[in-house]
């Protein structure tokens, strides 16, 4: 017996005390720590929305709103997994039908993901145990392969021509198309650019994208000149503010991308039919890089980080910034300062 273990007399004394208090040892085993009363969905969703990143809020906001509409007055610890499955089915069945609709699977997947995000916060806040998380007991629909693919050179030229010759701000739209074609960045990375993120000496831009990932990405001297001219014409002088702006100086938003592709689709029927978007440009560039410079360079070009499913080899075959710059120089046909380095 250890030195700290209670002896027989101590145990008997404790048992006698419990009996006088009307408490059995079994009662002590069932004692649960005090837990704060669970809030309703209407009360808790705004708290979660304020705590997450803007990207997460944008992705899940409409689904949290749907949850509040359905269960706003209920406590978050009330719904059963079967009720979440019912709500998932309703969302999937009532999704807005678009040309690229795939039976509402994406909407159902996002609803479950939104609820898992909410309940992770609820567990962290102490409103329920991890084992009681009902969203983890509901399966997400299996994600189908993407229908996006690389755009051919001739089609890409049509897109550039439409962007540069139509609309109320063709200079801005042409700049966006070139930025995404050269860098394969996501919309969030472009919108987050600041003047201070431009390294003019080495022709690099600092991209901050989803999941907190960030990287220095090579761009052509021509694109750098246009970004600097854009800032000189439309910027407010603050190097920490948004780089991309409308003519009146307002920072660019996601709505500009929606407007851009809607307009291009009016002039190019195949763009409208296939629901071409900015992410197709990312597919186009990364496909070319992978075919001509290999998988490791394509991963670095895309800003992908090591993670599950990539294999341990990815740790040892990471491409350098020099190699990414060489790929960019081949893509644009322009010399790049970092591509010439040994």
TrEMBL record:
Q: Which PROSITE patterns match?
A: TYR_RECOMBINASE (PS51898)
Asked whether the UniProt record includes DNA-binding among its keywords, one would answer: yes
SUPFAM superfamilies named among the record's database cross-references: DNA breaking-rejoining enzymes (SSF56349)
Domain Tyr recombinase residues, every copy: 143-329
Provide the alphabetized UniProt keywords: DNA recombination, DNA-binding
Enumerate the transmembrane spans.
none
Q: What is an annotated GO biological process for this record, any one? A: DNA recombination
Annotated InterPro entries: DNA_brk_join_enz (IPR011010), Integrase-like_cat_sf (IPR013762), Integrase_catalytic (IPR002104), Integrase_recombinase_N (IPR010998), Tyrosine_recombinase_XerCD (IPR050090)
Q: Which Pfam families match?
A: Phage_integrase (PF00589)
Please give the Gene Ontology molecular function terms for this protein.
Answer: DNA binding
Report if keyword Cell division is assigned. no
Q: What protein family does this chain belong to?
A: Belongs to the 'phage' integrase family.
* Protein's name according to its UniProt entry: Tyr recombinase domain-containing protein
């Amino acid at each position: 017996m250890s030195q700290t273990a209670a002896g027989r007399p101590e145990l008997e004394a404790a048992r006698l005390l419990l009996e006088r208090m009307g408490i059995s040892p079994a009662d002590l085993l069932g004692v649960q720590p005090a837990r704060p009363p669970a809030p309703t969905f209407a009360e808790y969703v705004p708290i979660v929305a304020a705590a997450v990143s803007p990207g997460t809020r944008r992705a899940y906001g409409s689904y949290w709103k749907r949850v509040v509409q359905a269960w706003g007055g209920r406590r978050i610890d009330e719904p059963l997994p079967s009720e979440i499955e019912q709500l998932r089915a309703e969302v999937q069945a009532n999704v807005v039908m678009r040309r690229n609709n795939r039976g509402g699977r994406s909407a159902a997947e996002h609803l479950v993901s939104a609820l898992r995000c909410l309940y992770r916060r609820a567990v962290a806040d102490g409103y329920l145990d991890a084992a009681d998380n009902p969203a983890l007991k509901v399966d997400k629909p299996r994600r189908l392969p993407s229908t996006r693919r690389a755009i051919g050179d001739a089609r890409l030229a049509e897109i550039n021509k439409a962007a540069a010759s139509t609309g109320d701000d063709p200079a801005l739209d042409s700049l966006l198309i070139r930025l995404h074609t050269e860098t394969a960045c996501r919309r969030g990375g472009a919108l987050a650019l600041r003047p201070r993120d431009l390294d003019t000496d080495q022709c690099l831009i600092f991209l901050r994208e989803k999941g907190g990932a960030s990287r220095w990405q090579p761009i052509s001297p021509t694109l750098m000149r246009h970004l600097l001219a854009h800032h000189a014409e439309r910027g407010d002088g603050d190097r920490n503010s948004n780089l991309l702006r409308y003519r009146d100086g307002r920072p660019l938003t996601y709505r500009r991308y929606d407007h851009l592709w809607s307009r291009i689709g009016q002039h190019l029927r195949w763009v409208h039919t296939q629901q071409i978007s900015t992410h197709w440009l990312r597919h186009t560039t990364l496909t070319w890089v992978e075919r001509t410079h290999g998988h490791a360079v394509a991963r670095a070009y895309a800003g992908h980080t090591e993670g599950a499913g990539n294999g341990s080899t990815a740790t040892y075959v990471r491409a350098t910034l020099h190699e990414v710059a060489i790929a960019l120089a081949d893509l644009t046909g322009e010399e790049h300062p970092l591509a010439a380095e040994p």
